[in-house]
Amino acid sequence: MTGQGLFLTFEGIDGSGKSTQARRLAEVLIKLGHEVVLTREPGGSPGAEEIRRLVLEGAPDRWSAETEILLFTAARRDHMERTILPALNAGKIVICDRFADSTRMYQGLSRGDLRDLVDQLHKLMIGREPDITLLIDMDPETGLSRAKGRQGTEERFEDFGPELQRKMRAGFLNLAREFPDRFHVVDGNRDADAVARDVADLVQRELRSMA
Ligand code: ADP
Ligand code: TYD
């Protein structure tokens, strides 16, 4: 699975501002004349959006972590086949709100250590990492209160509570150290304009260095 475009992902805890920043970055890049596909996980293709409902709604103990790994990876495979790879092969910039790093964290760390299983299945079924990952780092309590403020039905993971948010924040920062070539940590504890400026500068710098 290869592509010629640029594959960019946003990661971070719930409520850290990923969707806001992904949207704003897309606007900046489109203004600069790039062809951009803005997408998200779980979801991003019709089949994967159906799986999204299965994994994000209902009681926290609805699925075991192992079953979730299979469901998120199935959704991702469909998203890759139908949305991400066609866009990359056409030379576009793909901005994805969450990707495999979220599975490494939420399924790999939340209920015991299943990281190896996540990585094995990823290698077997997905086999591609993003070119650039922007980690929006932020205080877990603030993130949770922002996420809860949205009032939706997709709250299965938020219902695991603040302890999970703290664990995920630390886990994401460790992941940034594990993959220093593609990860960039952005301080999300600021107003959205300041974060967006940092993100846009960073991505434009990367684009120039690739040209
Ligand atoms: P995520 O996709 O990481 O869950 P969102 O972008 O959906 O985060 O943001 C969660 C909530 O917080 C939304 O209501 C959004 O408008 C708000 N928000 C996003 N960024 C900021 C920020 N920098 N400061 C304050 N509120 C923000
Ligand atoms: P998302 O819609 O990005 O939520 P938020 O805007 O609150 O960050 O993702 C929904 C939830 O799905 C989020 O709590 C994290 C979880 N998730 C996983 O557990 N594993 C995964 O592989 C992905 C992509 C998301």
UniProtKB/TrEMBL annotation:
It catalyses: dTMP + ATP = dTDP + ADP. The keyword Transmembrane helix does not apply. CDD domains: TMPK (cd01672). GO terms for molecular function: dTMP kinase activity. It is an enzyme of class 2 (transferase). Keywords: ATP-binding, Kinase, Nucleotide biosynthesis, Nucleotide-binding, Transferase. ATP binds at residues 12-19. It comes from the Bacteria. Residues 10-198 form the Thymidylate kinase-like domain. SUPFAM superfamilies: P-loop containing nucleoside triphosphate hydrolases. Its EC number is 2.7.4.9. Signal peptide: none annotated. Phosphorylation of dTMP to form dTDP in both de novo and salvage pathways of dTTP synthesis. Belongs to the thymidylate kinase family. This is Thymidylate kinase.
